[in-house]
UniProtKB/TrEMBL annotation, chains A, B:
Domain HTH lacI-type span(s) in chain numbering: 4-58
Gene3D superfamilies reported for this sequence: 3.40.50.2300, lambda repressor-like DNA-binding domains (1.10.260.40)
SMART domains noted in UniProt: HTH_LACI
Listed name of the protein: Transcriptional regulator
Keywords: DNA-binding, Repressor, Transcription, Transcription regulation
GO molecular function: DNA-binding transcription factor activity; transcription cis-regulatory region binding
UniProt keyword Repressor present: yes
Stored CDD domains: HTH_LacI (cd01392), PBP1_LacI_sugar_binding-like (cd06267)
Signal sequence segment: none
Length: 336, 336
DNA sequence: CTGAAAGCGCTTACAG
DNA sequence: CTGAAAGCGCTTACAG
């Protein structure tokens, strides 16, 4: 039933397998009449070309692999959807692999992709330059997502953390705030570092009068709460706080509320990420929204270019997906 | 570089390709010394067997396909994670395909899976018995998820809507409520229908004195709100409301609150799904939690059985994943 | 234990 | 336009 091969179709149509192949792949080099007979035979036999055989001979799998740290949660959910839609639009299948606890597991997953995919989308904390050299065939088109090992020249797509942070700081400055504190992310975290970089740059260049004020944090709500307590103790007190992510901003607001400080009247707050909860907290949180689905779809587009036109994308190409300021109540924009 | 084939390894190790194949696939039928030489050669050449060639000859892809309506949102996020983890545990790759707007698109996706997968996990609103007959080769192991077309004998895994509803009604009864109203889901929706069935059964059998009271709804928060308005107008008024899903329960609570009715003191409320918001609303919502990830992992397990031991799973096998009562404030359990 | 050979299902020069 | 044949990279009886 499902075992019909090209031979069966050839016999049924009374032609050679070569003609069947030609007729079914665009129909070049066969008469319309022959093609019709072949298509009818194929239909009758419920013929579906065997994917593996075709892969073997054409060296094309029409499949891309996505190696992700996880599949769960809003971030990955959106990411994979962006990838999936873009892949489908190009007629590519999607092979996913996730949850690699350590570098070894990621390496195994990476090697297992070989021969199954025409290209790779890769997001992994284990993917340093050395890891990639060891486990990636150099001729396999690959796009790194939010992963940029120094010293490797793979294409990479990342969130524009720097640009997003600039938007937020400029927004706060525009509202008249001058003492703007920054709650940092985990030490060594690249996203957090880039956000801090944007924060420092804007303060330094736009208004030399505003010194950078940094507080330690680790992306957790608790660390934001602790930072909020520190803000309360500072003299002079900051008039705005920009947290490297939303959860810390929310924790910080909780600390201020406990102390009877009004947000945004007394202190303005900004976050980063636009998590779903951001619009539900009180006051609703002004933050930076990142288009995660776009991260996926643009990475897929970049990969598609490489697959279709090898060499068309220069090694080491870097692209960013934009971040957008979402003004809500916590920054007090309506009041200013 | 990545082009090393079994021939290259054979030459490098000074043996035949047959020996290479044997050594690399378990090592049966080769001396330890030969095997060692071959493994070394393979390592030196960064040899990775070509997946397509292996698929072609072994008729095994070590891949399962998952056809889903979407990938986005909490439900699918959890589902696909359950599938992914279970697949990985069995050493199977996962090919995903989603967002098929119509039956034709789903059919194309289904056919494209052929030859690429050893089995299929399928969730689709388009999958009626006729559709499956047309587009599924009958010898491809398949498990339906929350999709049970009448007249087909595929294996199916579903959420235990009936059991979950029973738990909720029994919970409300145990708290002393007798006039328990039910807010229905969209007409024709199977999940909603099964929940209503469970509701009716428990009322009928456990306490003949409690009549079923149903209100129309469509799973939306607004429809829950409208049902809440109706509840307010009823005489005698129900002392509990069981909504077929959480969003309607939340809408219903909003209507009661507006009218100054206290939940749970005056009317108890129960929902179904345990959406993330359920714990954040005031009062927090007593509801039925379904283990979505388990739906995925159990479906994968059932599929794995079929792949490994063809015929071991009787046609038409039905299984359920459990639902669990989550008691929060809205049912007033602490008060009773 | 080891190797030569057939064959999985397809595509694509190469002749005719 | 059409077909016979080679070959993609692998596995597996079949001999030795």
């Amino acid at each position: 039933m499902s075992a019909a091969t090209i031979k069966d179709v050839a016999r049924e149509a009374g032609v050679s397998v070569a003609s069947v192949s030609r007729a079914l792949n665009g129909g070049h080099g066969v008469t319309a009449e022959t093609s019709r007979r072949i298509h009818e035979a194929a239909q009758r036999l419920h013929y579906v070309p065997h994917a593996a055989a075709r892969m073997l001979i054409t060296r094309r799998t029409n499949t891309v692999g996505a190696l992700l740290p996880d599949l769960y949660g809003e971030f990955f959910s959106e990411l994979i959807r962006g990838i999936d839609l873009a892949a489908r639009a190009r007629g590519l299948h999607l092979l996913v692999s996730s949850s690699h606890d350590d570098a070894d597991a990621a390496a195994v997953a990476l090697r297992a992709m070989q021969g199954r995919v025409d290209g790779l989308l890769l997001m992994s904390p284990h993917a340093d330059a050395d890891f990639l050299r060891q486990n990636l065939p150099h001729d396999l088109p690959t796009v790194l997502m939010n992963t940029r090992p120094a010293g490797s020249d793979y294409c990479a797509l990342s969130v524009d953390n720097d640009g997003g942070a600039r938007l937020m700081v400029e927004h706060l400055l525009s509202l008249g705030h001058r003492r703007i504190a920054f709650i940092q992310g985990p030490p060594g975290n690249r996203d957090a570092g880039e956000r801090e970089h944007g924060y420092r740059e804007v303060l330094a260049s736009h208004t030399p009068g505003s010194p950078a004020i940094t507080l330690e944090g680790d992306f957790s709500e608790e660390s934001g709460y602790r930072a909020g307590r520190q803000v309360l103790a500072m003299r002079p007190r900051p008039d705005a706080v920009f947290a490297a992510n939303d959860m810390m901003a929310i924790g910080c607001m909780a600390a201020l509320r406990e102390a009877g400080i009004c947000v945004p009247e007394e202190i303005a707050i900004g976050g980063f990420d636009d998590v779903p909860m951001a619009r539900y907290v009180t006051p609703s949180l002004t933050t930076i929204q990142v288009h995660i689905a776009e991260l996926g779809s643009q990475a897929m587009a970049l990969l598609g270019e490489q697959i279709d036109h090898p060499g068309s994308v220069p090694a080491g190409t870097r692209r960013h997906v934009g971040a957008e300021l979402v003004v809500r109540a916590s920054s007090g924009a309506a009041i200013a």
